[in-house]
Structures are given as C-alpha cells and as structure tokens.
TrEMBL record:
Pfam families: SPRY. It comes from Cottoperca gobio. This is SPRY domain-containing protein 7b isoform X2. Residues 102-215 form the SPRY domain. InterPro entries: B30.2/SPRY_sf, ConA-like_dom_sf, SPRY_dom, SPRYD7. It comes from the Eukaryota.
C-alpha cells in the first residue's frame, strides 16, 4: 500500500514526496488566474458597498468563491481523499471540484520527489481507475516520463533534458483548445490539444506495494 498527500490553497500545485518507502503527493494551489481576479474584484466591490453605499437591503449580496480541492465524488475506487480534500491515498486519479470555465486557465504543481504520476485536464467521463491516464478521449495529461498523451496517442514530449525533477514546479495553461506546459516559469513550447468539453484539473499516481500495516504509514 502506498500513500499520497494532497494540499489545496489559492493557485494550483502538485507535489510528490517519498518517505519510508511511501509515495506522497501534495497538491496545492489549484486555481485559475481569472477566478482569482474575479474574487479580488468582488472583494473590492463589497468593500465599496460597505464604505460608500447606504448599507441598505437594495444591493445583491456577493457569494464567496468555492474552495478548490479534490472531489470525493470523482475519484478512483482505490483512492481515498483525506485532510478535507487536500490529500489523496492509493492508486488512481482524482478530479478537482472546479471546472476550467475561464477563457484561459492556469494551475501549477510542485514535484517534491520523482515517481509514477500524471497531471493535466480531464472530463468527468474519464476512467479514474485507469493509470496512466491519456488512454482515451477524456483526458489530456503530462506523464512523469515527459510524454503528453491523449486518446492513447503521444501528442508531444518534453525535451529529455527538461523532465520535471524534485523541487520543480510544473505549470499548465489551458484555453479550451490547447494545453501548454511551463517548467519553473519557463514556457516549454510543448503544446497539446484534442480534448473537448468541460474539463477539470486532474492528477493521478500509481503506488507500489509497501510491506507493513496501515499504521506504518504516516501522513505529514
């Protein structure tokens, strides 16, 4: 059995960590730039209403943006989500709970240690028990070996000298047509396309068997 830890916060990210033979993946900061700008504008407008408005009941109350986290309703059968949607355990994939509706979305993942992982975008029809992803029309993912797959076809590949390593940050932009990859803020000029429909950030990993009891696995 293996373990993956996931953390969400404003802006997106994904982290892989390994300790005591256990694989750990942290996902943090999954959010779109446009969504963050909308949230800031909403906060400024709310402040204006409070400071300059009459405080009456005539204005429309603004709703807070939902917290972006892993969605327990859209995960593999061998995946367990803990820590309020911030950690994923087991083998398989999981979607984020917020779709990418903006004209151009961005999220990023921080790799803490190497392993078998993948990240990208997927529809809700994706098979989250199938690892690696990218085998059907419902997912477009970067795999840990640098290949980008969709519909069981290699769409592109990172240069051999630019594979994500421990401590690297992988960024993804998606404009509903093309997915682009960034490594530590640098455009890798590795576009890929083909997926259609409403998509969500997706992450998966494959855990090797670790001998010992569940009590031996420590979440950090």
């Amino acid at each position: 059995m293996a373990l993956v830890a996931v953390q969400t916060s404003p802006f997106s990210g994904y982290t892989v960590n390994r300790f005591s033979g256990v694989q750990k993946i942290q996902i943090h900061r999954i959010v779109c730039i446009c969504a963050q700008l909308v949230a800031r504008m909403a906060a400024m407008f709310t402040c204006w209403l409070g400071c300059c408005g009459d405080g009456g009941s005539g204005h429309i109350p603004l709703k807070e943006m939902p917290t972006v986290q892993l969605d327990t309703h859209h995960m593999g059968t061998d995946v367990v989500i803990v820590k309020s949607g911030r950690r994923i355990c087991g083998t398989g994939g999981c979607l984020a709970n917020a779709p990418l509706h903006q004209n151009k979305s961005y999220f990023e993942f921080k790799i803490q240690s190497t392993g078998v992982w993948g990240l990208g975008v997927a529809t809700q029809k994706v098979n989250l028990n199938q690892v690696p992803m990218g085998r059907d029309t419902n997912s477009l993912v970067l795999r840990h070996d640098g290949s980008v797959y969709h519909n069981n076809e290699e769409k592109n590949r990172l240069p051999a000298n630019s594979l994500p390593q421990e401590g690297d940050i992988v960024g993804i932009t998606y404009d509903h047509v093309e997915l682009n990859l960034y490594l530590n803020g640098k455009n890798m000029h590795c576009p890929a396309s083909g997926i259609r429909g409403t998509v969500y950030p997706v992450v998966y990993e494959r855990c090797d068997i670790v001998y010992g009891s569940v009590d031996d696995l420590v979440l950090r």
